[in-house]
Write a structure and sequence with these properties.
Chain lengths: 311, 700
């Protein structure tokens, strides 16, 4: 690889780490996408993963996805927990036979030397009740720190994966803290510069963490959110119903993506409501089920679209 | 005889599945071999994170030949029958069949000889089937082939299969087969990072040795030994003591092929968090051991990790990395703990109104109120302060809603105690928050503090009564709500603490607190529940080596719902029956009962009621009648004083009179009136012994 200027080196720069991963997976042949322009709880929600994992067509993509988990906010006081953080997501369909080696080489690319560090694949059965998805794989540990999740998707949106896609999710802040040797996420060097030019993760996000924690735990408008959930749910169903091409006898769908956006909206509204603690344990289950039903219906529609069906 | 070496090399197998998988592999292969007539000498299976391996030694080279005679149709039978017979037996013409005769005439016999196949061919047939049908708890598909249905499922992607078969002295052959594109061979791989190159192996001995050279310790027991020994040594060298943890050791040994044990430390400030929480954090999340100061028994600010690699820097980076993670985890735990401390336990209770305990038994909130009421009722009976018991019952479950317990369910109760103490609750109330869950099983400690006892009893009796009311009783091996454990807990709480408690009353009270659907027949249920306690008590006493039939004999008396008294009676009865007096009295009483039941059957009537003294003809009758009267009053008085030993001694006085009666008196006298009177006298023996137990339930 070309010699990187100091400010781009992954062990000095958060953005350098991201760019290195993008470069690595671009060199492998992935489509490098930009983040999905909606609030999601994890990179998996990006249609480039959820929907593209379905159907027989080959698909190799990588992207950064800002992820929002309202409940994980800590008012900027916890050194690790954030309500907004970045995931780097790689999806390879079908999963290549050397996917573990590919992953390990990507770690090497960002400066994790397997001769010095203890890299481990520890069982982690992944399941997303809201997406109707599950897979088997591992948490990838580096010296006891979980730095990635590694999943062979078996089912997504209620549809069996054929072929199976391999999903790699890098927790970027954790990885960066690791390679930069920093204990507090806000101390990460974001731009790789030093002195007056240095911008830290805290400079970029600390205020946001404080503000959103206040919002998520204390002030979010729950009446509006309940309403939003309902509206998104209704819209999703409406778009799905309207999307079947006339005369195709439900064999061809033309609006799976817009419908799926509404499913994402409903899911985020639920996460916000959950963070406010206004959803009881019994209700919680039923909300998750409602989102899952939407996701499943979107998956069903997707496999009847151009990109999702067999040739 | 030749040996088999089989290795299934895959991506990382979950630690918790490895031991069973190795066992399943050994069992499945050897069972199949035996079923194929290949009796082997020995087999052993191993697992590491990346491989399952099996060696079977002493397998015969070939299956034994099979000879079988098959009976066919009659000579001269219908043509289709003969054709069918030829087809079934593989004979080319009926002339090849022998003819035998029996009573019905002549018939054909085919002699089928099935030559045994070479074992290696048999293995090539059975091994792929075993791989395809392997019972992983969860398995998955992967890669290109997963597009087609019927592709191989394995726990994680399977990469290579080594299968060799041959004699020690020769180069073995590869057992040839292929599964989903994986061809068997002799090639495996060493440690993922330290020796990733391909290794060619011949048989188990060189496989094991070459793996060791390639930084793979094949035998999990050996890995455990290494970890435990090194961990103890590291701790000892620093003046500490390893907190041993078998479950963790098993798991850690399943996460490494080449264990390297290292020690790290964390900021001593974190020791302000309860030790159990530190241990749970470090153990559950990081799979590390903790160490303690042997003098104080308190945790030290050290931990022990097991890496999978001999790092080129001697482990410095690994230790530093683990320390960083543990610091972050502990600061989370500290955050949880300190957040929890900000909210009083009682202020959490409101949330329980929305948490369903069981759909038919209402919310946790309702349940806590029931336990509170019951604990207050039980308190005076067990010598507990009523207000403290009520308060403890009210707070005991509140820690379920704390952050720490949400994160580490195994510290429930314990955290309740810490939080109760922190908010200045009485020590007995705090203790009850932890101890009311006890005893959890036969080996668990039984609380003795009376407040704890009252809440523990209320909690368990409420659970039992509730699930009884909605008819969710344990059946067979199914006991999803751990009701047997709850009942045993009640028994141990009562007997270990020598408590006097009417279970019937307590159960009735618990039932009366249930509302709605669960409110049920309050007359029949408690009795039914009592029978369940009797069963549990029998199991308990049997486990302690006591005679469970004596429990039946005591419970057969009416109104026995005071477990302590039941146990005392059983003990006294057991001792009495060990004496000659006891044995003879039991024999005499049984004889009386037997005679009575025969005669009662014959006459289709019972012989109850007092005998008529004027009808006594013999001295022995009179003596017996006198003895019975005396024993009845003495034993009755002793029982009233709960002095069961004295009651038994009184009983013993009955024995000579009973013996003499049976010796000298003919019950079935020719005079019907005398006979009836004597039978009534026998009835009196039975009645007298019932002062202590129903002797008819006692086995000889």
């Amino acid at each position: 690889m070309d010699a990187l200027p100091a400010h781009m080196r992954p062990e000095r720069s958060f953005q350098g780490l991201i760019l290195t991963l993008q470069r690595y997976w671009a060199d492998y042949g992935c489509v490098i996408l930009q983040p999905y322009d909606m609030e999601v709880g994890a990179g998996t929600f990006h249609p480039a993963t959820t929907l593209r994992a379905l159907g027989p067509k080959r698909w190799n993509a990588a992207y950064v996805q800002p992820s929002r988990r309202p409940k994980d906010g800590r008012y900027g006081e916890n050194p690790n927990r954030l309500q907004h953080y970045y995931q780097f997501q790689v999806i390879l369909k079908p999963s290549p036979p050397d996917i573990q080696e590919l992953y390990l080489k990507s770690l090497a690319a960002i400066g994790v030397d397997a001769a010095v560090h203890d890299i481990r694949f520890v069982e982690d059965d992944w399941e997303s009740p809201t997406l109707g998805a599950w897979g088997l794989g591992w948490e990838c540990w580096c010296d006891g720190m979980e730095v990635s999740q590694f999943t062979y998707f078996q089912q997504v949106a209620g549809v069996e994966c054929a072929p199976v896609a391999g999903e790699l999710t890098y927790g970027l802040e954790r990885l960066a803290m690791y390679v930069q040797g920093v204990d507090r996420v806000y101390d990460l060097n974001f731009n790789g510069r030093e002195g007056a030019d240095k911008v830290s993760y805290g400079d970029v996000f600390l205020q946001a963490e404080q503000e959103y924690s206040r919002h998520n735990f204390e002030h979010s408008d729950t009446a509006m959110l309940f309403e939003q959930f309902k509206m998104a749910e209704e819209a999703c169903r409406k778009y799905l119903a309207a999307g079947w091409r006339e005369g195709s006898n439900r064999k061809e769908h033309l609006m799976a993506l817009p419908a799926y956006d509404q499913c994402i909206k409903a899911s985020h509204a639920f996460n916000l409501l959950d963070a406010r603690g206004v959803i009881s344990v019994t209700e919680r289950q039923s909300y998750i089920l409602r989102v899952r039903e939407l996701a499943k219906a979107c998956g069903e529609a997707w496999v009847h679209t151009e990109a999702g069906r067999a040739v | 005889m030749p040996d088999l070496l089989l290795e299934l090399f895959s991506e990382e197998i979950p630690a918790r599945m490895q031991a069973k998988a190795a066992d399943d592999l050994r069992r499945m292969v050897t069972d199949k071999l035996v079923a194929e007539g290949l009796v082997y000498e020995g087999a052993k299976a191993f697992a590491t994170p990346r491989r399952l391996a099996l060696t079977v030694h002493g397998i015969p080279v070939r299956q034994p030949d099979l000879k079988e005679e098959r009976k066919g149709p009659r000579v001269g039978g219908a043509e289709p029958a003969i054709q069918g017979f030829l087809k079934a037996t593989g004979l080319s013409s009926i002339n090849e069949a022998k003819i035998q005769s029996d009573k019905k005439g002549d018939f054909y016999i085919a002699l089928i000889e099935k030559p045994g196949r070479p074992a290696i061919d048999v293995l090539a047939d059975i091994l792929p089937v075993i791989v395809r049908t392997f019972p992983w708890p969860k398995s998955m598909r992967w890669g290109e082939r997963s597009e087609k249905s019927g592709s191989l499922s394995w726990v994680r992607p399977l990469h290579a299969i080594t299968a060799t078969f041959g004699l020690e002295t020769e180069d073995p052959d590869v057992v040839k087969f292929s599964i989903d594109g994986i061809e068997t061979g002799q090639t495996t791989y060493g440690h993922r990072f330290m020796a990733p190159a391909a290794i060619s192996v011949r048989r188990f001995e060189d496989y094991d040795a070459k793996l060791l050279d390639a930084k793979v310790v094949l035998d999990p027991e050996r890995r455990k030994d290494v970890i435990l020994t090194d961990a103890k040594q590291l701790a000892f060298a620093q003046g500490f003591e390893l907190v041993e943890d078998q479950t963790l050791l098993d798991e850690v040994a399943g996460l490494v092929e080449w264990p390297v044990v290292l020690m790290g430390s964390f900021d001593a400030d974190f020791l302000s968090i309860p030790g159990e929480v530190i241990r749970a954090t470090i153990r559950n999340n990081q799979k590390c051991f903790v160490v303690r100061d042997p003098k104080t028994g308190k945790l030290a600010n050290k931990f022990i990790l097991t890496a999978n690699i001999e790092a080129s820097d001697g482990g410095k980076a690994i230790i530093a990395g683990n320390e960083r993670v543990i610091r972050a985890r502990l600061s989370d735990a500290k955050f949880f703990y300190e957040t929890d401390l900000k909210t009083k336990l009682e202020d959490r209770l409101l949330k329980f109104e929305n948490i369903v305990f069981h759909e038919k038994l209402g919310t946790q909130g309702e349940r806590i109120k029931r336990i509170e009421r019951l604990a207050a009722e039980i308190a005076p009976l067990v010598g507990a302060d009523v207000d403290k018991a009520r308060r403890a019952a009210r707070l005991a479950k509140a820690d379920l809603l704390t952050e720490v317990v949400g994160e580490f369910p195994e510290v429930q109760g314990l955290m309740g105690k810490y939080y109760a103490l922190a908010q200045g609750e009485d020590a007995a109330i705090a203790a009850a928050c932890e101890e009311h869950y006890k005893p959890q099983g036969p080996a668990d400690r039984v609380p003795t503090d009376r407040v704890s006892v009252a809440v523990a009893l209320a909690d368990k009796i409420d659970t039992l009564a509730g699930f009884w009311a909605i008819d969710e009783k344990p059946t067979g091996s199914k006991d999803p709500f751990a009701l047997r454990r709850a009942a045993l807990g009640v028994i141990r709480l009562i007997t270990d603490n020598s408590l006097r408690l009417s279970l019937l009353k307590a159960a009735k009270s618990a039932l009366s607190g249930l509302s709605g659907k669960a409110a049920v027949d309050a007359e029949k249920l408690p009795t039914d529940l009592l029978a369940f306690f009797a069963d549990r008590l029998k199991v308990q006493l049997r486990d302690q080596g006591a005679r469970h039939d004596l429990v039946d004999a005591v419970f057969a008396l009416s109104g026995q719902d005071d477990l302590l008294m039941v146990v005392r009676r059983v003990e006294a009865l057991g001792k009495f029956l060990d004496t000659d007096d006891g044995k003879n009295l039991l024999a005499g009483t049984k004889r009386a009962s037997n005679i009575l039941s025969i005669e009662e059957k014959k006459d289709k009537r019972t012989f109850d009621g007092a005998p008529d003294a004027s009808l006594y003809k013999l001295d022995e009758e009179k003596a017996l009648a006198k003895a019975i009267d005396q024993v009845k009053s003495e034993a009755g008085a002793a029982v009233a004083k709960e002095d069961f030993a004295a009651a038994m001694s009184a009983m013993a006085k009955l024995r000579p009179a009973v013996d003499a009666f049976f010796d000298k008196v003919k019950v079935n006298d020719d005079d019907a009136k005398v006979r009836e009177n004597r039978l009534k006298l026998l009835g009196e023996i039975r009645a007298a012994t019932r002062a202590v137990a129903d002797f008819s339930k006692i086995q000889d």
